[in-house]
């Protein structure tokens, strides 16, 4: 074989499973076109080298065509599988994401610097699979994997491909911020990183508020957590004015931004504590969603709020039994200093009401109990609004980054309001029972807006091997669902007030 091109290109092609097991597999239109280009050789080779390719399985062919020295064919599963009503996601899209990710990684392992990707009939999903599947946090290693740039094969669906790249890059930004060590992503570094990403948008203003501003806002609950650390807190405020009218009620996103959660005086066990560098996952996903919304030029206004600090034990830290006062005047007994996220969010949620919000959506790595309940299958959503729920749910079917509704019963409220010294305790009185629900009930005490949703994202914070198109590590979920939700909201002109 003679390689004539200077730059080596790889090609990833999808192939559907046949309806019957023994039937011939079915090419995508890009696969068909390539097969014609090589005079039917691809079909021939595939048929002689074994049974049809199963979903996610690959075959590599070298030297078929001079422009593409290596071709990876990957199984897409059944064609036109549609929305799976048991799985609550669009199966075609999920299959494409997974297959393309596997194919692109194979090209990367072959150390080929460029890869063209079959759009597989849904270029957005294909781009997401490629860009999410290749992402890895490499920053601090001397030996890095080769960087490869996925490109669309052919010229159809260019816009959808670009949209997929933008969605995936948004999630990758959240993954980057979550994965990075806590001595690199401190509160101020987090804020500056986001500010830098938004610098070139004329539609965006970023305010990085210092400790003195937080104090004037009377955010006593947030400050009580922050004061335990030598690292100063930051309140990050983003204003994206993409709407037709700057006065249109905004969507307000709020994210928990604990850049490291040691537990404070209620210290966590040391095993696995390093994962607490991702305790700013709420802030990372909501801020990345706004960066993505700005890149997509979504026609709505969005406010992003992220209280950022560390939760550390020290002579200045909260002590169990301390009582602090939140922005709305409610007093909170800090019975466990490790339940710090709700303290930051209490103040940020009060502040969110200043914007006459169309909806408030907060995301937080709030409780280990959420992971116990749903694991990594879906983000838990606690909401007072069926309207908000339906938009989040519909968005998640498309993105495959699912949500599942959880209760906000009075039952749980009673367990946080029965408190010896203050209006509220920061833990439920039956300790671990329904931990995710008592945390949500606590947050509800700081919300008067009719359309509010709290997303507990602990279960989806990291990936082992559950999501096939994400490598092991911090997952940046559910950034794409937040973006898709915002996009849908921008299309919904219904007056919800
Ligand atoms: N940041 C943790 C939640 C968490 C747990 C995130 C595991 C990622 C992985 C949160 O601040 C916390 O510690 N919550 C406590 C609350 C408890 C003390 C009521 C928890 O879930 O144990
Ligand atoms: Zn904690
Ligand atoms: Zn925490």
UniProtKB/TrEMBL annotation:
Species name: Columba livia
Catalytic activity entry: Release of an N-terminal amino acid, Xaa-|-Yaa-, in which Xaa is preferably Leu, but may be other amino acids including Pro although not Arg or Lys, and Yaa may be Pro. Amino acid amides and methyl esters are also readily hydrolyzed, but rates on arylamides are exceedingly low; S-benzyl-L-cysteinylglycine + H2O = S-benzyl-L-cysteine + glycine; an S-substituted L-cysteinylglycine + H2O = an S-substituted L-cysteine + glycine; L-cysteinylglycine + H2O = L-cysteine + glycine
Alphabetical list of CDD domains matching this protein: Peptidase_M17
Gene3D superfamilies: Leucine Aminopeptidase, subunit E, domain 1, Zn peptidases
E.C. no: 3.4.11.1, 3.4.11.5, 3.4.13.23
An annotated GO cellular component: cytoplasm
Pfam families hit by this protein: Peptidase_M17 (PF00883), Peptidase_M17_N (PF02789)
Domain Cytosol aminopeptidase: 336-343
Protein's UniProt name: Cytosol aminopeptidase
Primary location group: cytoplasm
GO MF annotation list: manganese ion binding; metalloaminopeptidase activity
Function summary: Cytosolic metallopeptidase that catalyzes the removal of unsubstituted N-terminal hydrophobic amino acids from various peptides. The presence of Zn(2+) ions is essential for the peptidase activity, and the association with other cofactors can modulate the substrate spectificity of the enzyme. For instance, in the presence of Mn(2+), it displays a specific Cys-Gly hydrolyzing activity of Cys-Gly-S-conjugates. Involved in the metabolism of glutathione and in the degradation of glutathione S-conjugates, which may play a role in the control of the cell redox status.
Top EC class of this enzyme: hydrolase
Gene Ontology BP annotations: proteolysis
InterPro entries recorded: Leucine_aapep/pepB, Macro_dom-like, Peptidase_M17_C, Peptidase_M17_leu_NH2_pept, Peptidase_M17_N
Domain of life, source organism: Eukaryota
UniProt keyword Phosphoprotein present: yes
Quaternary organization: Homohexamer.
Entry keyword annotation includes Protease: yes
């Amino acid at each position: 074989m003679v390689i004539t091109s200077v730059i080596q290109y790889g090609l990833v092609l999808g192939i559907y499973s046949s309806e019957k097991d023994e039937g011939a597999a079915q090419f995508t239109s890009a696969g068909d076109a390539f097969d014609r280009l090589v005079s039917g050789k691809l079909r021939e080779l595939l048929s002689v080298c074994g049974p049809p390719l199963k979903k996610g399985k690959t075959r590599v062919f070298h030297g078929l065509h001079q422009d593409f020295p290596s071709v990876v064919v990957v199984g897409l599963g059944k064609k036109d599988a549609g929305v799976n009503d048991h799985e609550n996601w669009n199966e075609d899209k999920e299959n494409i994401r997974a297959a393309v990710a596997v194919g692109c990684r194979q090209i990367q392992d072959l150390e080929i610097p460029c890869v063209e990707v079959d759009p597989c009939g849904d270029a957005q999903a294909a781009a997401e699979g490629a860009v999410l599947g290749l992402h890895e946090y490499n920053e601090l290693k001397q030996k890095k994997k080769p960087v490869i740039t996925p490109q669309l094969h052919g010229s159809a669906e260019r816009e959808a491909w670009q949209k997929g790249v933008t969605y995936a890059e948004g999630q990758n930004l959240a993954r980057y911020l979550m994965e990075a060590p806590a001595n690199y992503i401190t509160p101020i570094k987090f804020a500056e990183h986001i500010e830098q990403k938004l610098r070139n948008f004329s539609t965006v203003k970023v305010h990085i508020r210092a400790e003195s501003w937080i104090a004037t806002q009377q955010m006593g609950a947030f400050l009580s957590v922050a004061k335990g650390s030598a690292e100063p807190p930051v309140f990050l405020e983003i204003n994206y004015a993409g709407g037709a009218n700057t006065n249109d009620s905004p969507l307000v996103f709020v994210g928990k931004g604990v850049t490291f959660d040691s537990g404070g005086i209620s210290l966590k066990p040391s095993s696995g504590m390093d994962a607490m560098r991702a305790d700013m996952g709420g802030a990372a996903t909501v801020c990345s969603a706004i960066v993505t919304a700005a890149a997509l030029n979504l026609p709505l206004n969005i406010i992003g709020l992220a209280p950022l600090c560390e939760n550390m034990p020290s002579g200045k830290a909260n002590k169990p039994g301390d009582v602090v006062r939140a922005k709305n005047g409610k007093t909170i007994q800090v019975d466990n200093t490790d339940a710090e996220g709700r303290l930051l969010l209490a103040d940020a949620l009060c502040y969110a009401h200043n914007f006459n919000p169309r909806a408030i959506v907060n995301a937080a790595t709030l409780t280990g109990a959420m992971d116990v309940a749903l694991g990594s299958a879906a983000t838990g959503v606690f909401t007072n609004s069926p309207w908000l729920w339906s938009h989040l749910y519909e968005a998640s079917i498309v993105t495959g980054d699912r949500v599942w509704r959880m209760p906000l019963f009075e039952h749980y409220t009673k367990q946080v309001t029965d408190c010896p010294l203050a209006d509220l305790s920061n833990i439920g009185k039956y300790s671990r029972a329904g931990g995710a629900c008592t945390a949500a009930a606590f947050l509800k005490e700081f919300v008067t807006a009719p359309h509010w949703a709290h997303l507990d994202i602990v279960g989806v914070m990291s990936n082992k091997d559950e999501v096939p198109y994400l490598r092991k590590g911090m997952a940046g979920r559910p950034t794409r669902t937040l973006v898709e939700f915002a996009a849908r909201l921008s299309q919904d002109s219904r007056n919800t007030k």
